[in-house]
Amino acid sequence: MVAPKYLKFTWGLLRSALSRKVACWVFLSLVVIEVIIFIPSYQSRKRENLRQLELVSQELLWATRQEAMKGVDIQALFQKFANQFNADSVIEGGALYQASTGQLVNQFGDVPPLFAQPPDPQHPITELHSQGQRYDVASMTLGFTPRDQYIIVVRHDSSGLQADLYGYGWRIAGLVVLIAVVVTATTMVVVGRLVIVPILELRQDFLRAGEALTQAEPDREVALKTLALIQDDELGEVVRSFHDLFHRTRSAIQARHQTEQALREAQLKSDQLLLNILPASIAEKLKQGERAIAQNFEQVTILFADLVNFTCLSTQIPAPELVCLLNDIFSRFDALVDRYHLEKIKTIGDAYMVVGGVPLPHDRQGGAIIDLALAMRSALAEFNQDNHRNFQLRIGINTGQVVAGVIGIKKFTYDLWGDAVNIASRMESHGLPDKIQISASTYALVHDHYPFEYRGKINIKGRGEMDTYLL
Question: Could you tell me the pTM of the whole model?
Fold first, then answer.
């Protein structure tokens, strides 16, 4: 169980772009630091190796000085050294030069040139050349006169020096890489557990929080895994701040959703109430800001219906019962108005007013009104049978020009104005119980489709005598 968990942890670190950047920077920083430390160490080792070669030349020079002090000729002494030259020695050759003239006096092996003149016997001059394969040391001998002063130049084989430095460099480089890898891996484990893993989990929690805040059900619980990773440091403060922000934002969104839902319900109720008062098209105009709404209609058909002797009945039964009876009857009439796609205008007491062709055109306004009148009479008959009553309707219908609209700013209603409305009302008031009386204008519109009986002329207030018909 531990191995898969460790592999999953390692794989997660390798997949993380942040962890890869941290690893690269840590590794490169360690390598740079080690290189900075290595360069002086490399130069120091190089100087030490060259110093070892210089000691060989110094031994030769010291021996020369000792013999010269005993009176031995330096040239003969140098020739003696040349005869003793060993090919396996680090000394590949030497040369003896006259100090005053720079003339070559004697030599052996690979002859080095006189590349520079030492200032005094205590300060030899060196030169490393031929890609580090040769190392020349020039030293001045002691003499009693200027003619006795010579310069001995010894050439050393420094190829072993280069091999040693290469080996040293590779060993240091391997050690640097090993240290960098170990320190980087250790850093990544520590940083991974303390920083990378919490950041990755925080990223996932951000996604979960975003989904929770945008989904249709904001009340559903969300499992945020960073709750188990909260630490007592700056990252822990960030995690705590995130959780606090998430819960506050979620609470605000939930409150907003509740408010929006309440507003939608209130708006729906308001719209429904408005539609119970006004036609849909007129209600929409009012919601858009229009106030004085009025429109002329050239031809509409108006129906007035009245319950016969209902006023007398109102004195005989309790008011609540009377209201219930009237509500039952008018509710049946409302359903019929919707069925025939007509517009109920209003009720006044026991009177019921309907119009066809307002506010939207109606293909057969006159026929639809006649059909409604017949259906209203049948509906009242059913009501009488169900409630053991004997109500009768008196219905009047007229067709003509009207103006329809909404006026006022309080308790406004959609209403009709015009002579055609008055005539329709007179058709009802001068009608007969359980009869449907229409004017000549309506008769001209529908007489081909319904059987009518000519009633004769009746005197209409303000209009005189008018022809009327009974359905």
Answer: 0.51
